[in-house]
Structures are given as C-alpha cells and as structure tokens.
Design brief:
The chain has 107 residues and is of the alpha/beta class. Helix content is 30%, strand content 18%. It has a four-stranded parallel sheet, with helices on both faces. Helix 3 links the parallel strand 3 and strand 4. Helix 2 runs parallel beside helix 3 (72-81). The N and C termini lie far apart (51 Å).
C-alpha cells in the first residue's frame, strides 16, 4: 500500500485504463494492448472510470469521448481538477463503427 491508499500495482508493468461504453470497443483495445504486456483494466462508463482511478494507480487512460451520461470530456475535466489524478495522461478517442452516407453517397 502507498500513502494515498490506492491499490499497489507492479511498477515494472505499465497500467492502462480503457474507458468505453461499448464492450466490443473495450475488448478490441484490450486485445491489442495485452500483446504488449500492459496491465489492462476496463470501465464501461465515466462514473466507473472515476471510481477506478480513485482506487488504483494507472499510467495512462484511454478515454472514449462519446459516452452516454458522463462523456469523456466531463471525465477528463473531473480528473484534471483532482490533485491525485491530475497528472495521469489521458488519451481521448472516438471509435466510429457506423459510418453514415455523406454528400457523395459513400457509406
């Protein structure tokens, strides 16, 4: 245990929290990152992500921007305002799995 009571994590392994409301996106990202021997944790909502970050240490957060309820921008803002979590790098991303027809009729 460390002084801020967060879960102790092996310091030789990079820990990444993946946040996305779509399970297929979480599992795809996890499959790619596990090949690099990262320690992966998943959260299915912004609220769950904040709870996990307050309990465990992460080296990086991969955060979906478009989620129902609390979106990725709100999560990032909350984490940036917290003394304990503000230094965690956050990569905000958008998974686009359904492309709609554009002006050229492409889909």
């Amino acid at each position: 245990y460390n002084t801020n009571m967060k879960e102790k994590i092996d310091e030789d392994v990079t820990s990444i929290l993946i946040v996305d409301d779509r399970p297929e996106n979480l599992f795809a990202m996890e499959a790619v990152l596990r090949r690099k021997n990262y320690r992966i944790d998943k959260a299915f909502s912004g609220k769950e992500a904040i709870e996990k970050v307050l309990l465990s240490e992460y080296d990086c957060i991969l955060l979906d921007v478009q989620m129902p309820g609390m979106d990725g921008f709100e999560v990032a803002e909350i984490l940036a305002l917290n003394e304990i979590t503000k230094s965690i790098p956050i990569v905000q991303r958008i998974f686009k799995t359904n492309f709609s027809a554009g002006p050229l009729g492409l889909s």
